[in-house]
Design a protein that fits this description.
Number of strands: 9
Largest sheet: 5 strands, antiparallel
CATH topology of the largest domain: Aminoglycoside 3'-phosphotransferase, Chain: A, domain 2
Distance between the termini: 62 Å
Shape: globular
Strand content: 15-25%
Number of helices: 10
CATH architecture of the largest domain: Alpha-Beta Complex
CATH class of the largest domain: Alpha Beta
Number of domains: 2
């Protein structure tokens, strides 16, 4: 078991689980996630005289990643633990461990949900490609996809004790712009003309939020587990915050689509059907004009993530080769942001 000090982990898990004769039967590192480190551990032990075989998932803070040093795994743990009390499909959390000596960083443990993660390709221009080949399953997953997003946006976050995320009030949009502006500056790209212009445009065109909700931040295909045509667990809550629910909606209407002519939202539903189902399930009316602001903010956010990866790679903080590869996407992200801003500029000039 080269990923951990096995004797230390065995001793820790034995004490934590109240287990006897515990052994680690398997270890698997999930290589799909590029941020938090995710491990699957198979455990075999005896408890109260009975044999137990258990698989658990460990989510650990990385040394660095796409978000550089901005990791706090306790936030994800607290949010998921709160959502365990709701109907939102999330894995059951077990415990949080702040001691970095056990696994090399703070981590939390949760249940392993058995199923498949349908991860879309980075870009597919094949109109015949189907992430979910069976139409009946696609429609069933689409219904669950909308339902869970509506549930996330309508949970009583105050009653769940999620105020610790920071309550932005009607200025949620400004808080988001300043957050990503700060991330880009810390990565060393804050003075780039494109960044300065984009930040200024966003601040000059801020929208007022009619509602503050729990926001996932990366809600899409590739971040849920499915089985038998149902979504069993929503994953990857690293960007969770309190903000405007329209930011999640705009993100869904962005690049995470199937190829034309279908252009299904997250490879599941036509855009109008997605929006209509969401409004019906959530009771939240979607202001299409405000979505334009959040589309631009998403482009700015993409630049922020790419720049952060590039900064970490340049400073030799990102030892994972994938971080180096991802760092090159900030050039593509800048082009996407430029195209978005040019669209707004042309509209303002009437051409």
């Amino acid at each position: 078991m080269s990923l951990f000090d096995e004797s230390r982990v065995v001793a820790y898990m034995s004490e934590r689980l109240g287990a006897e004769a515990l052994s680690i039967t398997s270890v698997w590192k999930n290589l799909e996630g590029w941020s938090m480190e995710t491990y699957s551990l198979g455990l075999s032990y005896r408890k109260d005289g009975r044999p137990v075989e258990q698989d658990i998932i460990i989510r650990k803070e990385p040394a660095t990643g796409l978000m550089d040093d901005n990791y706090d795994v306790s936030v994800e743990f607290r949010v998921l633990s709160a959502l365990n009390k709701t109907e939102v499909a999330v894995p059951k959390t077990y415990w949080y461990e702040p001691d970095p000596e056990i696994l090399g960083g703070p981590f939390y443990a949760m249940e392993k949900v058995e199923g498949e993660i349908p991860f879309p390709p980075p870009a597919s221009f094949d109109p015949d490609f189907r992430l979910i080949p069976d139409d009946q399953e696609r429609q069933s997953l689409g219904a669950d996809f909308v339902r869970n997003l509506a549930l996330i946006h309508t949970v009583d976050w105050h009653a769940l004790g999620l105020d610790f995320l920071g309550v932005p009030g009607t200025g949620a949009a400004l808080m988001e712009v300043e957050y990503w502006e700060d991330r880009i500056a810390r990565a060393g790209f804050g003075r780039k003309p494109m960044v300065v212009y984009a930040a200024d445009w966003l601040k000059d065109n801020l929208v007022v939020s009619d509602r503050i909700s729990l926001v996932h931040g990366d809600y899409r295909s590739g971040n849920y587990i499915k089985r038998d045509g149902r979504i069993l667990a929503i994953l990857d809550w690293e960007l969770v915050h309190l903000g405007d629910p329209l930011s999640d909606i705009a993100y869904n209407l962005g690049p995470w689509r199937s190829a034309p002519p279908n252009s299904w939202v997250s490879h599941l539903l036509p855009e109008e059907e997605f929006l209509e189902r969401y409004e019906e399930a959530s009771g939240i009316k979607i202001d299409r004009h405000k979505l334009e602001f959040f589309h631009t903010l998403d482009k700015f956010k993409a630049v922020g993530i790419g720049c952060t990866a590039a900064g970490a790679w340049k400073n030799k903080q990102g030892l994972d080769l994938r971080i180096g590869v991802f760092s090159m996407t900030h050039y593509i992200s800048n082009f996407g942001l430029l195209s978005e801003l040019y669209k707004h500029h042309s509209a303002s000039k009437g051409g």
